[in-house]
Design a protein that fits this description.
The chain is built from nine helices and two strands, in the order ααααααββααα. It has a two-stranded antiparallel ribbon. The chain has 202 residues and is mostly helical.
């Protein structure tokens, strides 16, 4: 069947969620908490389903890169370098990503504990601090709730920018090759498959 005539499914439009999420972060930083769905859903699918269905079908960010790089021609459509596909780079980036993530959680914990003031900034590419005070309008909860939102939005915005850069330089979904969540769910799937195989041989 011709792909042009293929009936679209509801999950083919999840790129809209990714786009709206980034926009909402400009309006109110607390919407950044919604990004946790992009963390937990892939993990749950890989743990209980043993597959990377999220990456292949439900990832709105990957769809967005395909749309921009494919349909709109914003990609050079070149093969991603071999070193970026290598295990050392992918696993190294995963470790680096989680170090930065846990550092963000540590700062959030300090704000929750009252030993550090809320920082109303978004850190792009882990180094560039952008003022983001207009997106915070207060909260009934602890300032730590907002601090987590600023930190988490920083993570999501940084990964989106990296994805856009690799989309432009290489193939549209080149980010998917070294995406930390993709690498982690792949490891989960391999471990689950190995466990299932061991149980069958008993």
């Amino acid at each position: 069947m011709n792909n042009k005539n293929k009936t679209k499914k509801w999950y083919d439009y999840l790129w809209i969620f990714s786009t709206v999420y980034l926009i909402l972060g400009f309006v109110n930083i607390l919407f950044a908490w919604l990004g946790l769905l992009c963390f937990f859903i892939p993990l749950l699918i890989s743990i209980f389903g043993g597959s990377k269905a999220y990456c292949n079908r439900y990832c709105g960010r990957g769809q967005l890169f395909s749309l921009l790089g494919g349909r709109f021609g914003l990609s050079r459509k070149k093969d991603i370098p071999r070193w970026m596909r290598s295990k050392p780079f992918r696993y190294g980036f995963l470790v680096f990503f989680f170090v930065m993530f846990f550092q963000m959680l540590f700062v959030t914990g300090l704000v929750f504990a009252g030993t550090r003031e809320l920082s109303e900034v978004v850190t792009l590419l882990w180094t560039i601090k952008l003022p983001w005070h207009w997106a915070y309008h207060g909260t009934l909860f602890s300032a730590g709730v907002a601090q987590f939102a600023f930190g988490f939005y920083s993570v999501m915005l940084t990964s989106t920018v990296l994805g856009l850069l690799t989309m432009a330089l290489f193939k549209p979904r080149s980010w998917c090759v070294y995406c930390p969540m993709g690498t982690m769910t792949q490891l989960v799937c391999k471990a689950k498959a190995k466990t299932s195989s061991s149980e069958k041989t008993k």
